[in-house]
Amino acid sequence: MINRLKIIKKVRETPTVFSLYFHWDAEVLPGQFVMVWVPGYSEVPMTVASREGEKCITVKVYGKTTERLGNMGEGEFLYLRGPYGKPFSSSRGKKLLIGGGSGMASLRSLIDEDSTGIIASKTSDEILFEKDFKPGMAICVTEDGSRGMKGLAPDAINNLDLTQFDTIYVCGPEMMMKAIFDMLRGKELNVEFSFERSMKCGIGLCDSCSVDGFQVCRDGPTFHIKEVENMAEFGKTRLASSGKRIYMK
Amino acid sequence: MINRLKIIKKVRETPTVFSLYFHWDAEVLPGQFVMVWVPGYSEVPMTVASREGEKCITVKVYGKTTERLGNMGEGEFLYLRGPYGKPFSSSRGKKLLIGGGSGMASLRSLIDEDSTGIIASKTSDEILFEKDFKPGMAICVTEDGSRGMKGLAPDAINNLDLTQFDTIYVCGPEMMMKAIFDMLRGKELNVEFSFERSMKCGIGLCDSCSVDGFQVCRDGPTFHIKEVENMAEFGKTRLASSGKRIYMK
Amino acid sequence: MIDLRTKAGGIELDTPLILASGILDENGYTMRRILEAGAAAVVTKSIGVDERNGYTSPVVFEGENYIINAMGLPNPGIEEYGGEIKIAEEAGKPVIGSIFAADAPTFLKLAGEMVDYGVSAIELNLSCPHVKGFGTEVGSDPTLVKDIVETLKASIDIPIWSKLSPNVTDIVEIGSAASESDALVLINTVRAMAIDINARMPVLTNVYGGLSGNAIKPVGLRLVYEIKKELDCNIIGVGGIGNASDAIEYIMAGASAVQIGTALWRKGRGIFDEINQGISGFMKDSGIGSIGEMIGVAVQ
Amino acid sequence: MIDLRTKAGGIELDTPLILASGILDENGYTMRRILEAGAAAVVTKSIGVDERNGYTSPVVFEGENYIINAMGLPNPGIEEYGGEIKIAEEAGKPVIGSIFAADAPTFLKLAGEMVDYGVSAIELNLSCPHVKGFGTEVGSDPTLVKDIVETLKASIDIPIWSKLSPNVTDIVEIGSAASESDALVLINTVRAMAIDINARMPVLTNVYGGLSGNAIKPVGLRLVYEIKKELDCNIIGVGGIGNASDAIEYIMAGASAVQIGTALWRKGRGIFDEINQGISGFMKDSGIGSIGEMIGVAVQ
Ligand SMILES: Cc1cc2nc3c(=O)[nH]c(=O)nc-3n(C[C@H](O)[C@H](O)[C@H](O)COP(=O)(O)OP(=O)(O)OC[C@H]3O[C@@H](n4cnc5c(N)ncnc54)[C@H](O)[C@@H]3O)c2cc1C
Ligand SMILES: Cc1cc2nc3c(=O)[nH]c(=O)nc-3n(C[C@H](O)[C@H](O)[C@H](O)COP(=O)(O)OP(=O)(O)OC[C@H]3O[C@@H](n4cnc5c(N)ncnc54)[C@H](O)[C@@H]3O)c2cc1C
Ligand SMILES: Cc1cc2nc3c(=O)[nH]c(=O)nc-3n(C[C@H](O)[C@H](O)[C@H](O)COP(=O)(O)O)c2cc1C
Ligand SMILES: Cc1cc2nc3c(=O)[nH]c(=O)nc-3n(C[C@H](O)[C@H](O)[C@H](O)COP(=O)(O)O)c2cc1C
Ligand code: FES
Ligand code: FES
Fold first, then answer.
1. Residues of C in contact with B246 (CB under 8 A)
2. How far from C48 is each of C23, C54, C106, CA to CA, in Å?
3. Using H for helix, E for strand and C for coil, what is the string for C110-166?
4. Of A105, B50, C173, D289, which is most buried with the most CB atoms under 10 A?
């Protein structure tokens, strides 16, 4: 079943990131996603956040389909199916949210009074959701140093006492998550990752999103650090659209 | 879905009528029926009664399929689908049950402290369920006079004050029901009939059971006398297995 | 008020909803009641020359969202059937006479009698999947189909509809053979069966039957779309239509009207009104003024 | 302990449950995990000579009890695929290599490479319904099918399975053409489509796709039964199997083993254990000692 939902509000978050708000009576838990069909273009996975009583997707423009989504306005319609995937196992307590690139979009539902954010991006332009955190609770990191710390997300972690957090949530490019994973593994911390592998079916049939035999669309996208520890493919290899094995660098 | 249910008890009611008891957790209301499949034979409609905490069908042997059913014993299996049909609209209060032939089987669920029965059959051998009524509450009518009154069901009705009954229920051969209908129509009595037209699908598709555009399997088998009043086909014509119109006599 | 009228297969219909052949159309009183309940037309049970009782029960198997049937083309024979049509016609709406036979001359004879009974169109059953010598066995042979359709078109003055089977390798080939028809009716049931593992045998006495209902909608839709795209002829869609969206999908795939059969099982006669209202509601919300505006719009 | 072993298509299996081609079998790690979860064997994604990305999304449409897919045969090409098979084989169970091509020489080349990769059998995809030039377009031509099967049987030493399509008029004709195969695998998906009435267009980018899941079970069962009855060859059943009863129905219709695909959508990997247990339970309750005792018992 494909849902057709009217865009009731559009917010420009950065020059390339837009939030599209809509009414939808489905129950969506933090970490779950939908497959958004843009007729005539393609279908892409997007995390859904519940914001201000409405649902919302936050789209970072990368290619043709996300560009079309970014150009959509109030009154236009979203076509989507879902929600899919395993939500984060907990969303309460003292939280550290580490988001790189559009990854922060997947964590947005979790932002509350108790959350600290590490928001990583290339430049200051692309810093996402800083204002959604309590003042002083968002740490920005940019590759060019144009905002906050200069560096990458892992660099920001070094300065924090991680044991103060009930849960640490991480979402971003796989190589960034891998770097963070390598820092945090074996530390008895409660860490949940949200994976972003390319998806075709979204429902556990096509194998295009799989990591170590787990379907990110079904067994994930959220995985606990304990599950990630045994993954031979994580941060190392993935399949291209054809199924050809590609080695990440 | 075809249910397979073990026969846990068999009771011989008359030389040609047998009750087969079984456990079944479906909710079946008085007046509803099932389609009983006898593999290798055929599939036939049978009313289900709830008796002594179990379900039960009471089979009068007419042809090959009912003969095979009559020969089945404890431990053998019934295959059936349903329940189907509209139940009687009420089953409380002071009741008069008029059953002819195997028709009394369809009324069995209704027999209680408050019921009076008119049990009609050809001979004394075939009187059904007399003992299920309170002593003195069952009036027997036989065509040959071998038990109770000599005559047909309608003859027994003449002696009763019908206004004392909250509901009158009638089931039997259509010509018998027609005779009773002709006696009772226009009398402001609350009468419900249970029709027995031959059935193929049991689910409102094949048209073989229809009376005046109503499907006995779906709109019936129970009909209120007010509904019967407008039926041009009732007691007059029916379709043969081929669909050929047959005039009843 | 939304206008639901449509012209399909050479006849005018108040709404796009027609009762499909073989469902509740053996008895004239039933057809009349279905017309009164909101069907724009009914197609009769398929009628042959001789009386047939059909197969011994079980003749239907009930799945969760589908039916498999092997009725075996029961029918009283064309001579006896006129009375039923007369009763149905009292509703003042079109009755379409469905007929089955093995060759063109017999089809012609049956059609001629149907014309005498006053039907508005003839539907040729070239597609029943479970009776030897009829239906699909006839309808999967393009030469025979062409012969039958052309013979009837040459002598019969009312519209001729050809009901085709999904059980063929190449529907476009068969559709072309039948392209002189005033409408192609797509689809009849998909050949199928059911087994009971406790009884260790097929449930239907005839073993093979035809699958209908919800489960075949994606198949019917595909055949309608394919024929519309490749042959662009007049089409009446049938197969698994159970709600307004299903009906609109068929129309957008190219159907000028649709037939409803198995859905009567779950929803009863009320389905005609329900779907008519659903289509009106959709058209209103979408700013669509007529059925014609929707026909085939999804075809790329 | 109930013995679930079966011999199907020339190989020995611990249980009758095999993963169907195209579902969770592009990545070696996934196949390995499915084998560990209880599948007795896996069939790989269909592999061709050249790398293909498949179609642009949407490539699946989700119905209530069915899926329509048009993946478009994405695959890395035979040269690249060996590594995945190696990973899958670590589970120590049979891996069957599915291949697609347009002619016998290409099928032969692909099969040769699969043999080198160590697969236990070859499955010929003669039935994908939505890619031009492959699948059903090949598999509906009896002469071509015969040529392909005989060419492979003459040179390849491991068992050859032919996976056939339900989208043909006469399955017995195609089955006969492929009868030298060690098993016929029935069925691939049924050609179908979905339309979105709001978008007013087909949902799948490729328009046409293949119907799978619960909705096609009665069709698959019929084809297995028909082939068993008419040709009495070794059969592997597939199509809409979602629980133990479905699997047993296929076995009673004549299948020596079954494949499971779309059911993983609703039930995940756990389905293999669930169905194995269900089959054991049924056999115990019914006093059946081996899978072999059930094969084809429903065929009349
Ligand atoms: C579970 C899940 C949840 C997601 N949630 C969100 C979300 O909430 N918001 C959001 O903006 N995106 C999200 N994504 C990513 C999003 O699906 C992709 O960005 C989108 O599919 C790109 O589509 P496109 O057709 O516009 O770009 P494409 O044409 O597919 O890509 C254009 C270029 O951008 C690159 N690219 C595409 N996506 C990414 C990416 N995510 N990171 C880095 N490079 C990329 C491609 O490699 C390519 O070079 C999610 C992905 C997954 C798997
Ligand atoms: C809704 C409904 C509920 C029913 N409930 C019961 C029930 O609870 N118990 C029960 O015993 N029967 C019941 N019947 C009748 C029962 O279905 C038939 O008796 C049965 O189908 C006969 O099958 P057969 O194959 O044995 O006989 P057939 O071979 O079909 O018939 C053999 C001969 O008996 C005649 N015959 C068959 N049935 C009847 C009948 N009911 N009355 C008079 N003559 C008949 C036939 O005309 C034929 O001449 C019910 C019927 C309906 C429609
Ligand atoms: C019980 C039953 C009987 C049918 N009999 C006929 C028939 O006599 N002639 C015919 O052309 N089609 C017959 N059909 C096929 C239907 O007309 C229709 O094509 C098919 O069922 C698909 O539509 P549906 O899914 O809406 O039922 C029959 C179908 C059913 C279920
Ligand atoms: C997403 C998807 C991809 C498929 N890909 C292939 C394939 O590459 N080769 C093939 O022979 N069959 C393929 N099939 C068909 C399945 O193997 C199977 O025959 C069909 O889906 C019916 O079984 P099911 O109902 O259990 O899924 C695919 C099916 C699906 C749903
Ligand atoms: S996207 Fe297809 S299995 Fe995950
Ligand atoms: S028995 Fe078929 S309609 Fe009633």
1. none
2. 16, 12, 9
3. HHHHHHHCCCCEEEEECCCCCCCCCCHHHHCCHHHHHHHHHHHHHHCCCCEEEEECC
4. A105
Substitution candidate for ligand 3 out of C81, C188, C243 with most atoms within 8 A of CB: C188
Q: What is the pLDDT of residue A50?
A: 84
CA distance C59 to C6: 35
Q: What is the ipTM of this complex?
A: 0.95
- pLDDT at residue B41 is higher than 90: yes
Looking up tokens 């079904």 gives A218
Task: Give the model confidence (pLDDT) of C253-288 as tens digits.
Answer: 999 999 999 999 999 999 999 999 999 999 999 999
Determine how many CB atoms are found less than 10 A away from the CB of residue A186: 9
**How many CB atoms neighbour CB D298 within 10 A?**
26
As a whole number of angstroms, the distance between CA A37 and CA A152 comes to 33
B127 Cα to chain C: minimum distance (Å): 30
- CA closest to D20 among chain A residues: A205
CA max distance for chain D: 56
Run of H or E residues at B64: helix B64-71
CB contact under 8 A, C29 and B79: no
Query: What amino acid is encoded at B236 in this protein?
Result: K
Domains detected in chain B = 3-84 (2.40.30.10), 95-247 (3.40.50.80)
Nearest CB among D198, D211, D222 relative to C192 is that of: D222
Does pTM surpass 0.90?
A: yes
User: Class for domain C6-293, per CATH?
Assistant: alpha beta
Assign D265 to helix, strand or coil: helix
Are residues A144 and A150 in contact, defined by beta-carbon separation less than 8 angstroms?
A: yes
Residue A79 pLDDT:
98
Q: Which residues of C touch B245 (CB under 8 A)?
A: 76, 80, 83-84
Distance CA D252, CA C200 (A): 7
Measure C242 CA to nearest chain D CA, in Å.
13
**How many helices (H) does chain D have, and how many strands (E)?**
10, 16
User: Could you tell me which residues of chain B have a Cβ less than 8 Å from any Cβ in chain C?
Assistant: 1-2, 4, 35, 37, 39-40, 42-44, 77, 79, 81, 200-208, 210-215, 218, 232-233, 239-245
